[in-house]
Amino acid sequence: MSAKLFESALGIADPWFIESVKFDEAAKTLTILIDFKAGSRFEVSGFEGVHGAHDTVTKTYRHLNFFQHECHLQVRTPRVKLPNGSVRLVEADFAGRLNGFTLLFEAFILMLSGQMPFAAVSRIVGESPHRVLAVCEKYVDMACGLADHSQVKALAIDETSRAKGHNYVTLAADAHARRVLFVTEGRDAKTIKELASYLEDHGCPAENITHTSIDMSPAFISGVSKHLPNARITFDKFHIIGHASAAVDKMRRIEQKTDKSLKGMRWTLLKDKSKLKPQAAADLDALIAKMAVKRTARAWSYKEQLRVILERKQINVMRAMLEHWCLCVMRSKVEPMKEVAKMIRSHLEGIVAWAQTRQTNGFLEAINGLFQASKRRARGFTRLSTIRTVIFLIAGKLDFHAINPHAGQPT
Fold first, then answer.
1. Rounded to an integer, what distance in angstroms lies between the CA atom of residue 24 and that of residue 11?
2. What was the pLDDT predicted at 411?
3. Is residue 205 pLDDT above 90, yes or no?
4. Would you list the domain boundaries of the chain?
5. How far is CA 247 from CA 83, 311, 324, 365, in A?
6. How many degrees, rounded to 5, is the angle at CA 382 between CA 379 and CA 386?
7. Rounded to whole angstroms, how far apart are CA atoms 206 and 128?
8. CATH fold for the domain made of 147-235+360-380
């Protein structure tokens, strides 16, 4: 009766059956012995027909815990002799993709690893962090290999830091499906060449990409122009506002040397005015009232004007307003903001493209935030393969169900 119960619970089907169940109370482990019926014949991938057992080996698989006790399946596994003389091991239907685990156990690891660090998952499942990571890397590699990107038309490309200093990885995502497609080391034109090659291998010729959103990195601009020839470039408006905010802060630091009233106003000037606390909002209003004599106030005003201009939906109107804004800034004495005006003038067409494409890297910035949070919880990642695995678990929306029927499908 117990054998039948476990067969149903584990999904054990013909020709496999449970021979016996052993529970070690001292070790708190449950061991289930699984065999196959005598005379059973097995199919082998890549070879026609069915084949009888030549000999057997015993394999042990870690399974989901049974009432908090470790559960192991000991399987008498057949090896078959093929017509070409080779001997091939026949894996049971419930065997996982990594040696030593069942499919259900691997699906459990994948579910947890998308929500917490590998070290925390290892404590829950009772396996080493290296084994947990190995399962995730295996599934990410397999799912990426099977991915079909033939419908991708628009890309969002950005970089994120992998460690302190100038050490970066580049992310490329489907701008419409909002899922990461590609992760590689570096942030130069070569990364775009690697991206184009990867897309080609997964059913998406470079000519199919019609839109890209990037920051104003010369390397990215050069790479997209060369390797994604049909892609219209849109410069992410949040990066532009970011440059303007940096200019405001630079102006504040310069003026603060002679005007101590600006001390402590950094975040007041950088935050959205509608989100300021009453006292901070009052301080900002007092500063704006002195715009005629405070260059920091004028810098803040230019930043807010730029924010409003970038919300316009008519491309010609946006172009004219940006040109006028640049002219006003260049005539002012707000030196840090002049650098922003020069940048806008040199990248004007990519900036005004936002009016029509409305494509930004905002969701990639959110993904970057999640990755950085995961990196902090894990005390950093040393290998690119680990970084790639973590990013895909967070935002790849990979179809693990195609590899493991117990794993969740992408949403």
1. 23
2. 57
3. yes
4. 2-95, 106-146+381-411, 147-235+360-380, 237-357
5. 74, 20, 19, 21
6. 95
7. 41
8. Nucleotidyltransferase; domain 5 (3.30.420)
Burial classification of residue 86, based on how many CB atoms lie within 10 Å of its CB (0-12 exposed, 13-18 middle, 19 or more buried) = exposed
Type of residue numbered 331: R
Kindly state the tokens that stand for 366.
């959110």
| For helices 335-346 and 295-309, angle between their N-to-C axes, nearest 10 degrees | 20
Amino acid in position 47: F
What's the predicted TM-score (pTM) here? 0.84
Q: Which residues contact 269 (CB under 8 A, 6 or more apart)?
A: 248, 249, 252, 284, 296, 300
List pLDDT tens digits, range 48-95: 888 888 889 999 999 988 877 889 999 999 999 888 888 888 888 888
Residue-wise pLDDT tens digits, 325-334:
999 999 999 9
Per-residue pLDDT at 187 exceeds 50: yes
What are the residues facing 163 on neighbouring strands?
167
pLDDT interval class at 165 (50, 70, 90): low
CA distance 331 to 312: 24
Start-to-end Cα distance in the chain: 40
Find the Cα–Cα–Cα–Cα dihedral 376, 378, 384, 385, rounded to 10°.
-140
pLDDT at 3: 64
